[in-house]
Amino acid sequence: MKDTPLSNCERDFLLKAIEEKKRLDGRQTYDYRNIKITFGTDYGCCFVDLGKTRVMAQVSCELVAPKETRPNEGILFFNIELSPMASPAFEPGRQSELSVKLNRQLERCFRNSKCIDTESLCVVSGEKVWQIRVDVHTLNHDGNLMDAASIAAITALCHFRRPDVSIQGEEITVVSAQHSTVCLIYCTSNLDPCEREERVMDGLLMIAMNKHREICSIQSSGGIMLLKEQVLRCSKIASVKVSEITELISKALENDKKARKAGERCGFAESMPQERITALKMDETPVEMKNVTEKAEDIVKKYEAPPQSVPSPLVPAPGVGQVGQGQQNSWGLEEEDGESEEEEEMVVEDQPKNKLDQGECCK
Amino acid sequence: STQTRALKYSSLRSTGLRVGQVLLPGDQFFCEAEETLSLSATARRDTAVCGPGLRRSGDRVLVCVGGLLRHKAPNVFWVQSHSKRYVPAKGECVIGIVTAKSGDVFKVDVGASELASLSYLSFEGATKRNRPNVQVGDLVYAQFLVANKDMEPELVCIDGAGRANGLGVFGSGGLMVKVSLGLVRRLLAPGSELMADLSGLFPSEMVLGLNGRVWVKSSSVQQTLILSNLLQSCETLSPDQRRALFHRVKQGTL
Fold this sequence. Notes:
The structure holds 2 protein chains of 2 kinds. Chain A has helices at residues 8-19, 97-113, 145-159, 195-200, 228-261, 292-302, and strands spanning 35-39, 45-50, 53-64, 75-82, 122-124, 128-140, 161-165, 170-174, 181-187, 190-191, 204-210, 215-221, 314-317, 320-322, 360-362. By secondary structure, chain A is α+β, with helices and mostly antiparallel strands. In chain A, α3 (145-159) packs parallel to α5 (228-261). Chain A is elongated, with a radius of gyration of 34 Å. Chain B is of the alpha+beta class. Chain B folds into 3 domains: 3-80, CATH 2.40.50; 93-170, CATH 2.40.50.140; 175-251, Ribosomal Protein S8, Chain: A, domain 1, CATH 3.30.1370. Chain B is built from 4 helices and 17 strands.
């Protein structure tokens, strides 16, 4: 299925709005949309909502033989699926350019950052190691899939419990994720673009950073020319945002741990208690209104109320209203009394003073 | 699209349908029968007009869309549902985006399952030598000339007498947003409070397409953004909430 094309008028408007530093939904230039993290019943399953963009990540593990070149290390495998549920532009089956790009970016971001200690995944050196597989499914595409996918992947990894196998029996230990790595996407000096803003952008700068303020990977695509100051500024903003997001992730993980300990029912179905067929829920968007008051008042002062085109009616007798005085009868007929004439229609023209046929208007 | 069907009154009223009841696809629709049917009178055939959401199959009328049953005297029934997906219908005015020029015809995207075609000659004052100035990516406000499930939909930008009458290319400087079909119909209803409230906020221009697309333009980028956001939030607000919100907007304290 084809996606709706972007019209020229929308493109011009978006570019003009960006120049004036206005976003479509009222955010500031460097604001993120609302991030919501929920967990599923199994360990290692998590949903991330970034505004309307929605992704799900699921972590699973399996014992396999290690790579020959690295017999002591476990294997990490990332996979992003762009399902047609997310957007009419995604077709099932075929590997599109976007999906290849997202997969590569995600792999590079997590592997290079070494956020998971792969040596701890080794069970028997040279024979059996853990292969951890992270599957990210996109459920709704409203821009910035990369960020949502990276947040989902790292949260799922932190949430996952790997079974520890020893000769005697089974114990459960947590996969130690040493530090969370989060990617951030910038496009044409806007942070976290929504879908329409993404279509208008010329180029993209992606910075992956961890909470220790170490840059794990930077990627620039689209061929835009970036100034040194711009890149530095972006990385500074990135460090602030990354610490916010990391805090959010750890809070979500803690809440979930508490809920599970207390024996509460947890999982995807529980996190949406309000759903009814007839309920339409929308989050409030803060739209900036500051400059508008003066303008609105100016406009109201300039334009007065439209003048009344008809003077107020007289009431010569109860039940009868008369508007205007009427003029000389120019038809050459005998003059009759004004009140006995019955003319249903009254012609009212724009010029307020004259040209009102004499008539009765019934209340 | 409304189709007139002749229905015999059924003396069985097993389901007892009420106006305003929720119907689901697959339910059977019964006409409301009279209280008493005199046996001596000849059997009358009454026509009920089935609107969107009701379809005849054999001698039954089935519901094919989930929603509320609505009735307009004397005999029009239809199912009102919340939908965002547009199905072309003849005579409706929609906003389309020109996607391609091929030969003598523009291909226009109206949000339906097929691209509609718009001929070069269906603009006011257009001749074979005097072609209209339409580029790929422009917005057009056009009316459906042909729209059924068997043929490709066709649009025109003139009315029966050859005048433009508001149709044609437009849209420099505004913003187009997508809303549900029900909201557009509410805005276009005569004497609509929603429309009156919206137009009382800022001086603005709006073009409403029955395919759920609304183009808004106001005197500044910020006002246009505010209007488009208010429009999208009007879908889910009750009248009281909406009035309170608009009041806050007018005072500038949002």
